[in-house]
Amino acid sequence: MKVTVIGTGYVGLTTGICLAYIGHEVICADTNESKIRQLRDGDVPIYEFGLPEMLAACGERIRFTAECREAAGAADIVILAVGTPAKAEGAPELAYLYAAMETVLDGIAEKAAPTLIVNKSTVPVGTGDKLAAMAASRGISERVEIASNPEFLRQGSAVPDTLYPERIVAGGSPAAQAALRALYGPLLRQDFSPPAFAPRPTGLASVPFYAVDLKSAELGKYAANAFLAMKISFINEMANLCDRVGADVSAIAGMLGSDSRIGKAFLQAGIGYGGSCFPKDTKALHHIAGTSGYDFKLLSAVIEVNRFQKYVLVGKLRSALGTLAGRRVTILGLTFKPETDDMREAPSLSIIEALLAEGANVIAHDPVGLRAAKALLPAEAGTTLNLDEALQDADAAVLVTEWPVYLNYGGRTYRERMKRPIFVDGRNALPAADRSWLDYYGVGMRAVPSAALST
Ligand code: UDX
Predict the structure, then answer these.
(1) Binding-site residues from annotation for NAD(+)
(2) Pathway it belongs to (predicted)?
(3) Ligand 1 cavity residues, CB under 6 Å
(4) ipTM score assigned to the predicted complex
(5) Which domains does the chain have, with CATH numbers?
(6) Whole-prediction pTM value?
(7) Which residues of 23-48 are buried (b: 16+ CB within 10 A; e: fewer)?
(8) For residue range 40-91, what is the model confidence (pLDDT) as tens digits?
């Protein structure tokens, strides 16, 4: 099939490349010309595991262009994958989506053959109907089908998540659902050769396909993200309670997760969720509910818990050090999670701001995200690419992002580098054997005083 993807962000680019990989003829279009030039040179502008290798494997089946209108006119299926960032009041900004839709309609205006326009951007319920109305206002609705096809990929594992999805959701008319079933056929049947770096999970023979109406698909995407965010806020509240009563949240997460009705995933307590989806989508769903006249109380609590959780570490640090004023604090990790360079809604930014406000001298390290972070960090925050230098003479270290380099550094090495071995682990991720070298503080677990210091 001939597919055009509008938008070359995480979702658009990964989708375009994976669709080309499984055999479709794909054009990725974006108004950002420098991005397009980079992609034409075979250079992937985002840090995403395996994506450059996948692109190289696609050969002639994928092209890149800044001519979005022409690209839309050349396709059987146009996928809209543009950003829907949150506006101040939490509502998603749909201006980019509507602008992209106008361009697509311009591109297909003279085309005789039908076009399926698939929205992959996360949007409020009813947006698909608005897209259909836009086509109708041009008098071409009989040649246009609108579908909603929400995306569930995670950054850092976007390629395997796309090749081996746990479900594919197709919202729209029976004809739109059938076209999406054909588009994703090779994924549904798992009928393609897996790339060497992302082998097919054992036992995966086929992928479930949910054919639903447009509105349910739109709302379902928010429901999935809000539910996962709720799990995280729940375990974070349990962790805060554990801190007060002296229980261990990891033990509780284990007990909870082994109940198959609950599941193990997303019960890792820490500093709260960040990234491009959970913060934005929880606020958007709350706003959507509000505008429909419904007060989604549970979601308000999820959002509030997450806002508070970022500062739990700061309190732990303050009590461990007595005061933060004049103390040198090393921030280990800036990106919202490992294996990405994405700084969107990264909790590190709020944590650093709070530390600086209390007079701490902050020095931050990240193996991948420093470039993106520098534009967002306050000028007073120091940064370095050298981990040893970041830790040198530190009064305390705070693990914010669980990059392997921090987990493999070794308790003893931390202790030797730092002035004082105070280690606040915002992810409960440091290996147990390393903790006894340090004055170790996790989230929702008893503090471990360093063995050497207490003797
Ligand atoms: C998420 C969804 O998982 C994905 O399905 C959707 O398409 C986009 O949003 P992503 O934002 O890439 O993906 O990251 P994810 O791995 O889900 O983590 C989100 C945030 O939650 C991160 O800040 C992570 O550190 C945090 N998290 C996750 C926890 O604090 N605890 C957990 O147990 C899991």
Answers:
(1) 30, 35, 84, 122, 280, 344
(2) Nucleotide-sugar biosynthesis; UDP-alpha-D-glucuronate biosynthesis; UDP-alpha-D-glucuronate from UDP-alpha-D-glucose: step 1/1
(3) 151-155, 225, 228, 232, 266-268, 270, 273-275, 277-278, 336-337
(4) 0.98
(5) 2-212 (3.40.50.720), 221-309 (1.10.1040.10), 312-454 (3.40.50.720)
(6) 0.93
(7) ebbbbbbbbeeebbeebeeeebbbbb
(8) 999 999 989 999 999 999 999 999 999 999 999 999 999 999 999 888 888 8
